[in-house]
Design goal:
The complex is a heterodimer of chains A (about 450) and B (about 300).
Chain A lengths: L2 H22 L8 E8 L6 H16 L3 E8 L3 H12 L8 E5 L3 H6 L7 H5 L9 H6 L9 E6 L2 E6 H6 L11 H14 L4 E4 L8 H12 L7 E2 L4 E4 L2 H15 L6 H4 L4 H9 L5 E7 L3 H4 L10 H4 E4 L13 E3 L1 E6 L6 H11 L2 H10 L7 H4 L2 H4 L5 H6 L4 E3 L6 H16 L5 H16 L4 E3 L1
Parallel strand pairs in A: 1-2, 1-3, 6-9, 8-14, 11-13
Antiparallel strand pairs in A: 3-12, 4-12, 5-9, 5-10, 7-8
Chain B lengths: L4 H14 L3 H21 L9 H4 L7 H8 L2 H34 L2 H16 L2 H12 L4 H8 L7 H4 L1 H26 L3 H9 L4 H12 L1 H16 L3 H6 L11 H11 L3 H30 L1
Amino acid sequence: MRRPARIGAALLGVVGLLASAACSTQPQANEKQTIKIVYQRTDSFTALDKVFKDAKQEFEAANSGVTVDLQPIQANDDDYGTKLALAQRSPDTAPDVFYEDTFKVRSDVDAGYLMKLDSQLANWDEWSKFNESAKAAGRGDDGSVYAVPLGTDTRAIWYNKTVLQKAGIPLPWQPKTWDDILAAARKMKAADPSVIPFSMYAGKGTGEGTVMQSFYELLYGTGSSLYSESDKKWVVGSKGFTDSLQFLKTLYDERLSVTPADALDSNVWKKVFGQWLPQGKMGATVEGSYAPSFWQKGGSYEWAGYAQDMGVAKFPTQFGQDPGGVSMSGGWTLAVGAKTKSPGLAFKFLATAVNKKNALAFDVNNSQIAVRADVASDPGYQAANPFVKDVSDLVGVTHYRPATADYPKISLAVQQATEAVITGKQGPAEAAAEYDASVKKLVGDAKVMQK
Amino acid sequence: MPVPDSLHRGSLRRRFRLLPVVPSILLLVLFMLAPVAWSFYASFTNAALSGKAALNPQWIGLDNYARMLTDSVFPLSAWLTVVFVAVSAILGQNVLGLVIALLMTKSGGATASLVGTAVIASWVLPEIVAAFAAYAYFSQDGTLNQLLGMLGVYGANWLYAFPMAAVILANVWRGTAFSMLVYRAALAQVPRDISEAALMDGARGWQRLAFITLPIIRGSIATNLMLVTLQTLAVFTLIWVMTAGGPSNASTTLPVLAYQEAFKLGDIGYGTAIASVLILIGMVFGTVYVRLLRRANS
């Protein structure tokens, strides 16, 4: 090849590259309409994938000429949130309909990612079937609704009856105070030193799991809280915060929970569900109402005996004070992207995905607590697993995370405090003081109150 | 004034010669310089992944940089980065690579190629695969503890008890091949006759190394130091997979911290500010080595 020809070829290559890159982002005008759906799918979370595949078929059959483009993201909750937020930054990548964690709704509304659904919901006859507290989960600070809930959840103590029986603890077990938990855990340890008596998550490895399934059950049971909704301020310096850290320290110091090294492994929950509880190597843990979804048929850790072997108890308040139990609730929603080019179609698809049939399938397969009255009264839902009634009752004592834009950073500061305590880097008082300092730094003195 | 035809043609030709590199320069500007410039710009804003700042990022001047001074994690992280680079790159990869290269020139063909293959094997692995291999080696039930178990020794949980040591060893294991290759090539250039002359004059092995070989290859040493330093400064996947920066930030180097701030906490502004500091550190190292290189060549 002579030189000019070579140069010409190289230039042509570059032009070709640039041209193809430019073309791929240009939608063609006469193309069929496509709506893009972004959601989460993991090896242990396929319930939503199934719902969307069914909804796609249903929707495409009813709306000819429309293609539903399903784009699952394979990632854990944290990474899913990050990838979704990055996709929202450009109109070319922003989804038309997406799966959104309730605690991110308000902050993402502020960011302009979610479309206001008020006018669509007004003409949707099924909206009245959703219960009021669930509707609130999708509300922005301005009072408008931006997201439609798929289901909710609660947290409880899940215990292995055989392990408790061996330790001579009468069943059904219901600890009334924190000390009851410690006493039972010590009994289990004495009966069989190889079992992990009572596991509670801690550290940054398990992320939101650390706070939702461990620390907040403690904190909200002391009478303190993370955030004062009435003052719109973050609470610092509470005795409840230090007491909660002290409780975790006792659990970990006395080896009543997993080892600190295991606790910091982000995959520790897989061992809890997959090995320790089914094999009778763990007495109890605090986990979500969705626990049976892992064990039931088709779940990632199938365990036929879970219905007989496992029991559920309310997490108690510190000294047994009212209301006698604590739970935390989260849940996920579907939302329409603010940058969508076809809002009508997008909402229509959302409505298909949360109709009674699909919501029922999701709530049963993912062991969610129903938010639609017609799903809650369905016999198929009530018979989904033996614990539906127990965990649904906890809605009465449940709390929600403060869904403000600052929350993720505060949550990380809490996780950091628990990590410092269980690894022995800091004592509870010291870690609580550092938490107070970082909260003040994160949100500013004006948004903090001493309690 | 009319330009002589030959001169005109010469400069035209010189310009024409640059043409083949234009595409690669364009690509570099597009995919390297542009993100760097954007990151630098974003570090002066409160850009975020969510919340009001995601909609309208505000210009906040040097606030992000001021925050580093009061942040308790940043100084620790900067220190860990220095330790990581000094121990795993400058000492570990660089010295070990030189030693292996020297031993290989001394030893026979079969041994040399066997060692070479073993060392390079870790280098050709994609970073994520190498990171998982290192994780599998050091983790609680990993290869190392099983080997120790055979000897009747109960090993520690290395990633938890000694996170920095684990990631440093892993980076040495993964990166030594590069230094070895550079030094193999450099040592092949050392003229035999000088070495032999020194031998005749009675110079011992270490004297020949210190006074003959090293001065001759000092250009390669400087180049190698620069490359391994810059590569190691940017190591992220290896640490993220092995320890994710933990426990309690004990292995959070600057790239890990930047990622945590930008993508875990959604604070793009602060994350990019940390990344900008990292670029500056890289530039300082780069300048020092380029100076060294110039002195070596003159």
